[in-house]
Design goal:
Strand order of the largest sheet: 1-2-3
Low-confidence stretches: none
Order of helices and strands: HHEEEHHHH
Helix content: 25-40%
Number of strands: 3
């Protein structure tokens, strides 16, 4: 442990290439992922559902599996979380408990600059104007 503390660690992060909306779009694909996407459902009839799967035992080849409707629903519901559970979880320094304290300690130990949010103290309209690069009040006024 002492050897780790002696090293000159630093953290590096860079701005997003396409802006904050691209970050939200990227994260949205992963944080609210469901058990099966519509694109994997090959066909549905009154009694069966056919889905595409990857066969782990056969070199990850894509295959179509046909299930009875009740079996499909049973398998789908195995992925539904119990009430009050959430999918997005953080561990370590980003865990909710003592997050501010841990991040402050990390910044102190690494002599990192304190992060100041770009949109702090701005109204929603001001943030939208910056993100979109247009005065959104003109659109609102024009709608009346």
């Amino acid at each position: 442990m002492d050897d780790c503390y002696k090293k000159g660690w630093y953290s590096y992060s860079k701005g997003t290439l396409a802006g904050p909306l691209a970050v939200i779009e990227y994260l949205g694909r992963y944080t609210h992922r469901i058990a099966i996407s519509n694109s994997r459902i090959a066909s549905i009839d009154e009694e069966t559902v056919s889905i595409t799967v990857r066969d782990n035992k056969d070199s990850q080849k894509r295959k179509t599996v046909t299930l009875k409707g009740t079996e499909f629903v049973r398998r789908f519901l195995m992925h539904v979380l119990p009430s009050r559970f959430v999918k997005v979880r953080y561990y370590g320094i980003l865990a909710t408990r003592n997050k501010k304290t841990k991040l402050a300690l990390c910044r102190k130990l690494t002599s990192s600059a304190t992060y100041k949010p770009k949109f702090e103290d701005l109204s929603t309209l001001q943030v939208l104007t910056i993100i979109l690069g247009r005065d959104v009040t003109k659109f609102i006024a024009g709608a009346n």
